[in-house]
Design brief:
Layout (H helix, E strand, L loop, with lengths): L22 H8 L6 E5 L5 H9 L4 E5 L3 H9 L6 E4 L13 E7 L10 H11 E12 L4 H6 L6 H16 L4 E14 L2 H8 L11 H12 L7 E13 L17
């Protein structure tokens, strides 16, 4: 397990996560989504996008995804009219300054190229209105499910880098830390074939899983197998960052108070 961060007020991991819920429970409790202008970066299959759009029909959502295969599927799907799909990354956002109430990143910050992580935070700051929020959830590098996935996709370094980037953004005053929440999301697999489909057969990454890795994952998977399948939980951390009302220290921001 990754050592506990010593950053003040921010933790990379948590030793005893008690809350089990869906991610929608978290963002519904933290954010005001009605009437909001929302930018989602790295929307993937747009599960959260669609859920938010349907529940909050007065919100307008720009959902960006750089994986062209997934973007094509999103564009071809029937979706609510308040969603617009597009194809830019967090490190270069072609939207006006101070145009968004909320920026959402569901487990996608660590997919930003490492040399561009700070650029991504500056871009998020730029497009947020003063007082606006960046909701960033990231998987925690811990737990039985993580132990299986790390065999073929070890993301410890990139997840730590994403966390360090957020910490720098708070420590330098770019953002204010409004909330940090750890929770568990139940994950159920009927069998190993379902795990294979969800983790090995993805379009946004080239897995190149070897036979030895696949066998090692299957062996570990089977240690959790019961007649009801495999029931695990993914550990998630949410950092809710707020753009200060006065942000003139940073290029592309203004001192205008959000009305």
């Amino acid at each position: 397990m990754t050592p506990q961060s010593t950053r003040p007020n921010m933790q990379l991991t948590h030793p005893n996560i008690m809350l089990t819920c869906t991610e929608s429970d978290i963002y519904e409790s933290l954010l005001v989504l009605d009437d909001a202008s929302i930018l989602e970066l790295g929307c993937g299959k747009a599960d959260h996008t669609g859920r938010i759009a349907q529940r909050h029909q007065t919100a307008t959502i720009i959902a960006a995804e750089v994986d062209r295969v997934q973007l094509g599927e999103n564009l071809a799907a029937a979706v609510p009219e308040n969603i617009s799909f597009t194809d830019f990354g967090a490190e270069s956002i072609p939207l006006p300054d101070a145009s968004q109430d909320l920026v959402l990143m569901f487990r996608s910050l660590h997919h930003v190229p490492l040399p561009r992580l700070d650029d991504a935070m500056r871009e998020i700051l730029r497009v947020l209105k003063p007082g606006g929020y960046a909701y960033i959830s990231e998987p925690v590098f811990a737990g039985p499910l993580n132990e299986m996935i790390r065999i073929f996709n070890d993301e410890e370094a990139v997840r730590t880098a994403a966390f360090d980037t957020m910490c720098r953004a708070v420590e330098t005053g770019m953002f204010e830390l409004a909330n940090e929440t750890f929770f568990l999301v139940p994950v159920i697999y009927k069998d190993f074939a379902e795990f294979d489909r969800k983790h090995f057969q993805v379009t946004h990454s080239e897995r190149n899983v070897s036979d030895a890795q696949r066998l090692a994952v299957e062996r570990l998977f089977n240690t959790h197998l019961s007649p009801d399948g495999v029931k695990l939980a993914q550990q998630i951390r949410v950092d809710l960052l707020r753009k200060p009302l006065l942000s003139s220290r940073y290029p592309g921001t203004s001192d205008t108070v959000n009305k």
